[in-house]
Predict the 3D structure of the following.
Amino acid sequence: MLIKVGTVLIAALMALSGLATLTVNSGLARFTGQKSNTNDTFTSADCFPGDTGLLDPSANAAGTGGGFELNPTNAYTDGSGYASNIDGPGDRHRYYNYNTSIKSSCAIDGIRVRLEWWLDSTSDTNSMSVELSWNGGASWTAAKTDSQESTSEHTATLGGPTNTWGRTWTVGELSNANFRVRLTSDCSGSGCSSRDFFLDWVPARIYYGPS
């Protein structure tokens, strides 16, 4: 298919995404080898690479030990107060309803969870772990852990653009009915029984692309 030079930028973007091969000749651009298209005619792409941006949770549930028993909804958004887990080593808490919206034909390339959290004390050995569920909490991935200890708020990112937490995801497994983020407050040492954990925000970002 031949296209005027004025649309070459669009053609180039398609080529960069891996969905087409672009050839420019005598002021005209030709799409060849478009994904799933052997006739050189332009059709909509199966899925453009991208990500969801940072998604806020809108629901939560306490787990083992009571989790973030004080103001857990404060961790839905950045800077709107904080959730508190008092005397909390070993406590778990789930956040969910991230309201993802991804085209069903896309493949999930990676998932990143962001933690903004801190401690009341850095004595003993402290950390916070994250697991993900794809079936409403019936099963969980292996945990990823942030071991930075601080009495002031710091940001940790677990996972990333090409990290799928040890499994292959479908778009449906990221729905509000299925996707869960579970936090565990970790501590090892003689003073752990009185350790407090504080959480400002726990957003997630989903990366996707052509299958």
Q: What stands out?
A: Residues 1-9, 22-33 have pLDDT under 50 and may be disordered. The chain has one helix and 14 strands.
